[in-house]
Design a protein that fits this description.
single chain; 11 helices; alpha/beta
């Protein structure tokens, strides 16, 4: 099983980190058997599994419920769990309680927090100080959708400098890696070269130290495919056809065993 320390070694050795999201036992077991290094129980499950319009309604109890199922399907991969909206932003004490619940109740090895502003950096430093491994997340931050939307960050020099400064601050705070979401590829490469901890890109080019995708996007299960996410198979079409075939067998009294 990769550890947070081993992921640092991956970067030193130039080994790319393979990461995907999971939301239940079956998907987690498949990803783990396929040899994925890191499984993220992301707050994307709010939309993928629970049908919300964005990630904001997801609760701490809901993500813990799904992370427990994921953990039961994993023997080898490192499991990281997102802290949902408002389960860590209001105070450091709330963040500690939320992150502590996730590690205690799910068996996951780390948590992920969005944002690189000074208050968030201080929160991450405190979590790391008490022994909770933290993955950072900058760039497009879905929990800030009502403030920032889904536009690509890093389009101006000021924004680029801010993201680079945030990445350096997160490293100094003790984050063991940083997700870079939907930022210009050259900026992601610059950040990856500037810091010593692994960067994991999603829609940020190939210059990162690893890549992550929402597994539903990879499998073609998402109704609106993100522009930066490649679908490697169209399971919507395959499942729909299978259901049609089954339905036709039932209606025609055909033996479908």
């Amino acid at each position: 099983m990769p550890t947070v320390r081993q992921l640092l070694q991956y970067k030193a050795n130039g080994k790319q980190i393979v990461a995907l999201t999971a939301w239940d036992f079956a998907i987690a077991q498949i990803l783990d058997t396929a040899g994925v290094d890191l499984i993220l129980v992301g707050d994307s499950l709010a939309m993928v599994t629970l049908g919300y319009e964005n990630t904001l309604p997801l609760t701490l109890d809901e993500i813990i419920h799904h992370a427990k199922a994921v953990k039961r399907g994993v023997k080898n991969a490192l499991i990281v769990v997102d802290l949902p909206f408002l389960s860590y932003q209001t105070s450091t004490e709330v963040a500690i309680a939320s992150a502590g619940r996730i590690l205690k109740e799910t068996g996951a090895q780390a948590v992920k927090l969005e944002g690189g502003h000074p208050t968030m950096v201080a929160t991450i430093a405190r979590l790391v100080e008490i022994g909770i491994p933290v993955m950072g997340h900058i760039g497009l931050t879905p929990q800030s959708v009502h403030q920032l939307g889904y536009r690509q960050p890093g389009q101006t020099e000021t924004d680029r400098d801010r993201l680079l400064t945030s990445a350096v601050a997160l490293e100094r705070a003790g984050a063991f890696s940083i997700v870079l979401e939907h930022i210009p590829a050259d900026l992601a490469t610059s950040i990856s070269q500037k810091i010593s901890i692994p960067t994991i890109g999603i829609g940020a080019g190939t210059g990162c130290d690893g890549q992550v995708l929402v597994t539903a996007d990879l499998l073609g299960l998402t109704l609106r495919q993100p522009p930066f996410a490649k679908a490697y198979v169209n399971l919507q079409a395959i499942i729909t056809q299978a259901v049609h075939d089954y339905s036709n067998d039932v209606k025609s009294a055909t033996d479908n065993r």
